[in-house]
Every structure is written in structure tokens, then in C-alpha cells.
Amino acid sequence: MSEVVLHRLPWWRRLTAELTKSPVSAVLNIAALVVFVLIAIPLVNWALIDAVWTGESGDSCPPGSGACWAFIGSKLRLILFGRFPYDEQWRAFAGTVILVALVVISLNPVFWRKWLLPVWIAGLLSYGILMWGGVFGLSFVESSLWGGLPLTILLTVFGVGFGLVISVPIALGRQSKLPVFRLSAIVFVEAVRGVPLISVLFMASVLLPLIIPDGFTPDGLGRVLIGLVLFLAAYMAEVLRGGLQAIPKGQYEACRSLGIAYWPMMLKVILPQAFETVLPAMVNLFIGALKGTSLVVIVAMMDLLGAAQAALADPKWIGFYVETYVFAGIIYALMCGSISWYGRQTERSLREMREQSNDRR
Amino acid sequence: MRSGPAFQDVPGRVRLARFVTRREFQSQALFIVIAVLLVWGAIQVAADNLAESSGKSGFAFLWQKASFELGESLIPYSAGDTYFKAFVVGVLNTLKVAALGIVLSTFIGLIIALGQLSKSVVIARLCRGYVEVVRNVPLLLQLLFWHTFLLRGLPTVRQALSPVDGVYLTNRGLYLLSPVAEPSFWIVMLALAGGIALAVGLWFWHRKTNAAFRLWPWGLTIAVLPALLAAYVAGAPITWEIPRLTGFNFTGGMTISPEFTAMLLGLSIYTGAFNAEIIRAGILGVSKGQVEAGLSLGLHPGQVMRKIVLPQALRIIIPPISNSYLNLTKESSLGVAIGYPEVVRVANITLAETSQSLECVSIIMLIYLILSLITSLILNVMNAQTSREER
Predict the structure, then answer these.
(1) Which segments cross the bilayer (chain A) (predicted)?
(2) Residue of A nearest to B147 (CA)
(3) How far apart are CA B136 and CA A291, in angstroms?
(4) Which terminus of chain B is less hemmed in, N or C, by CB atoms within 10 Å?
(5) Could you tell me which chain A residue has the CA closest to the CA of B334?
(6) What ipTM was predicted for this assembly?
(7) Where does CATH 1.10.3720.10 sit in chain A?
């Protein structure tokens, strides 16, 4: 059946045509569908049909019944916000919404304008006020109480943000013909990429207090963030280096012949193109960073995963770990999925903008 | 390409060396001075802080006695051995889970990749779904899930689940048959070695003379037959020790801890999804014309896969998959979260006991750096070999 005919058919005919393209694929499809349905039925039974949706304690979910979503319901605020003071959790929510909105608009090329910088400054200011408080009648919340989803998002956004900033000089250093910069960049990048994230986090949380004079030591959150930023910066520098290498030599030569100095050339000509080239890889690193923030659990911080584990410790509700991990897993998967979706959108709109400007010329 | 045309040559700028302008020299010197000052300051502060807390420093503690037990070990270890030995146990446990994880994750990756390329839409979609879900959930969450599941989801020792005779699934671990060598073991092994040597000889002869027979069935027969004969004459080389329930626990047989099982499952399932993408990209990277050419030469699809697609795909696959193996090795450090005694876990307990944080963290980093270096060395060699075949 030709493609044209296929498109005119109603969807069920198209589906059956697709499923029975050849005898072999028809048999395989039917067998796979049967296996899938056989697995899916008990899963759906557990997750939806036999599930318990309301209840006050573990007694409302007797063994043998389905998923105990009542547990998630009663622990929802704890899982999502960790130990953030209960009555102030709207602040963490509002702050996180602002932060996410800032990231979302910054990733859209349409908004790459001059006013983006003041918007960021205003956004970060209100984020800080909402999270810390202490002014405008908001009570002070110390950063050790921040937790749950806001902490996960905070670590991801600032880890990636600062990581990007630091990765630029490292990537340029690695490309530099000056041996001191090149060697230091190589040693830093290779050393960090050779060790696991958890060891960098350990280093940040136990070593920083040792080598920084008393009184200047950042708090737990700051230390973890420093570790995360250093770790991400090394990977981002490596990705960025790939982008720099992809830039044709003629671009450098053109700048030189126009008399443009090193930094203006890098900032206005080379780096924008390099970042555009490596956008897909950077989006992957963004997702990796989001997943990596879950490791802060090991250094005793309560991010989304940590808060989910804390919820499991309630003696009134025992044994609902599957529900908890599935719930946290769905949140992570949704976040990662939307990042990669949005990354693809950005790529497409960048390409369209490029084509339009080419047409105009 | 190192095209960093840093500064144009402006008349009047003094050249210190042949390629270095004064400003370039100054910036490097400044960088070195600042770096040295920072490191020196950090050392001073650290020395002060250590003196204040009267903490010991140095690696002498490695030869003191560790007071902790480690759940599992490839070499005999018990509390009272040195910290050094505990670290060796940790490294071996890391290598054990990484090696098995690499094999299993490659296997999973291959199956899922072939599934995604399958003729059946349903199978392709299901495999795609696996990749999308597993890649987007943090590994730590998956590890914690598997660990909790193995501890709480499986029955107690007394009500052990036994899918096959001699295999018991319990919340204290997996109990399996373990092989025990009989006296005839070495005779049979010797016969097997002889058989393999004969088969290799046959292979050489086959290559040299291009004799018209199929190599595989004959080679396999020659390799295995002597061993089978020896086993028939001398008796079975291996007997199986079956785990038995005595009192509160199983004795005999082989025990696999829930921690190890959780690590292996989590690491393989997670890395398997990444490997599937790598392998799929490798297979798709071989141009369609190659397959069509093979088919039109009269090779059957299996031969095309084996002799045309896979060797070329391998060249695309090896660099990224080696990176993925290295990631798996590094991610085995998450064992610390579920109590699998790998390097980081050992370092963490040692740190808690001796409070020599600086030393413990640097040991972790050193070990992983060495592992990474060795791996990248091996892979560079492999890479050079596969790309040398290029014509």
C-alpha cells in the first residue's frame, strides 16, 4: 500500500495496515501485543483498579489491595517540599515557579534580547527573597531546611548556570596556545571526568570546611552546589570544546583581518556559534545534572528523592516504597522528558530563525 | 585544531620569546602566581584547622586495624584486618560489580537495540519506551528501589521462593547451587584444553587450505569431545552443593547479597538503556547500500549482519560504548547509598571511624583516576586496532 493511500485511511485501518505489513511482522506484532497485555493487566489493576485513594494510615491499605496512593496523598507536601516550614511552602512553590519560568524563557531564542538580563536579576532577587525571607514580613528560612522538589530544581538550575559560566574559560583555556592555561584546563577537565560525582560531592562537603578559613565556609547547600558546579563545568567545557573545534578556521581569520581583538571575537563571534552547535549535547548534560542532583541524598540533603525516603520512615505507614519510588520516578521522568522536548523545540526554532535571516539576505 | 590566534601583531609590542607576546607572558605568570597563592593559603588554613581539632593526618592509618566488617569480599577479610586491606576489598568489589555490569548491560543494550530495529512496530515501540523511561529516572532512585524491593518484597528465609530446585530467593539474599571440583576435574580440564588446541589447529588448517567443509560444527565437536570422553571415563568433574535450610538460615551453596543483586540489576538496566542507543546508532550508521550489496551477492540476512554490518558498526560503537562502560564503573560508587561495600563505601566507613576526611576522599579519587586511566589506555589500543582495518 503506498504512502499516499495510507494517509487517506481512517486511523484504525492505518494501524492494522501498519501492524500487518508482512506475515512475519504480523506474527511478531500480535505475539508482542499479547505479552504486553498480559503484563499490563495486572499492572493496571494494581495502579488504578485495586488502588486505595483515600485513607489516614497504613491500615486503610490492607495487604493484597492495589497501590496505596492514599499514602502519597498524605505525604505529598513532605515529598514535594521536604522540611520547608509547612505554612511557608507556598513561598518555595512561588520561587521555584519563577526560577523555572526564567529558564524556560531564556532557552527560547525569541527572548534573546537585551532586557533578559534585568529580568533575570529581578527574578533571582525575588527568588532569594521568597526562599530566604527575613524581609517584608516573611519569616527567615535557613537553607538547611530547603528541600524536596524546590531543592532539586535549585541545584539543577544553578549547577548548570554557574557550570556554563565557568566552562567557558576552561574550554577556551584548553584551546589556547598558551601552555599554562592549556595544561591547567586539561588537568582539571580530565581529573574531574575521571572521578565519580559522589566523590566530588564528598570533597566539597568535607574538604571545603578544612581549607577555607572559619567564618567564610559556605553552608551545606553552598558546598554541595560548589561541588556540583565544578563537576558539571568540566563536562560542559569538554562539550564546548567540541563546538569550538567545529567552527571553521575562516571565522577566526575573518575576525583577525577585521582587527577584532581576542575577547570580542570570542564573545561575539565564536562562542555564540559554538554554543549553538553543542545545544543538543548541553541539553543532555542538563538532564544528566537533574538526575545527578539526586546524589545529594548521600551527603544528607533532602531533595526530592531524600524527601521521598523520609516519607517512607513514618511508622504509621509501613511498606509503601513501591508507590513512593514510582511517584518520585514519574516526577523525574516528566522533568527530564520535558527538558529534552523543549531542547528539541529550541533547536528547531533556532534553525528556522537561521533560515529566515538567510532568506532576508 | 588549536587555532587560538590570540593577538594580532601590532607594531611596537615587544616580543619576549619567538611566539609569546608580553601580554601573553604576563597573563600566564599572573595565573601561576594566583594559583600558587591560593594553594598555599589553603594548605595553611588546613594545617591550622587540623592543629585546632588535633586531628591526625597522613596515610599511616592505613596500617591500623579496622574494626568494621564488610558484607562481602572476594578475599578473606574480617574486622581486625588493616584499613589497607579493607580498601583492597572495596576495589575488588567495585571491579566485580563493574565487570558483571558491563557484560549484562551490553547484553541488554544489544537486545533492546535489535528490538528497536525490529520489523514489528509493537516490539520497536516497547523497546523505545524502555529506553525513554529508564534513561530519565535517576540511577540512585532505581538502585534504592531495587534494594528495597529485594529486602522487603522477597519472602523470609523460611518461606523462600524457589523457582528452580537449588535456587532460593529470600530477603537475605539469593541462594544458589555452588560448583565443587571433584578429583576428576583437572583431568577433564586437561582434555578440554587439548580439544581446544586441536580445534585451533583445525582452524589454521582450514584457513590455509580452504578445505570445503563447515568449520563451526567440526571445530566445536573436536574441542568438546575429548572432555566429554574424559568425564565419562573419570566421572563427573563437578558436583553441585545445594543450599539447605538449617535453623534460621541456609548453609552451603553460594550466597549473593541483596546489595550486590540490587547494584547489578540497577547498573545493568540503567546503562543498558544507554548502550541500546549507542548500538542502535552504530547499526543505523552502516549505510543501507552495504546491506543491499551483501544481499544481492547472495548472502543470507544473518551473514550480512555478521560479516558486513556488525564489523563496521563496531567501529562506530566502540568509542561511545567504552565511555558508557567507564560511566558504569564510576556510577558503581552509588553502592555507598545501599550498603554495597565498594570503594566509596569503605572510604566512607573509614572516614567515620578515623575522621581523616582528606585522606579518605583523596584515596577514592586516586583509585577512580587510576581505573579511568587504565580503561582509556585499553580502549585507545582497541580503537587503534579496529580503525587500522579501515581501507
Answers:
(1) 26-49, 90-112, 119-141, 153-173, 185-212, 224-244, 293-313, 325-343
(2) A321
(3) 8
(4) C
(5) A198
(6) 0.87
(7) 70-360
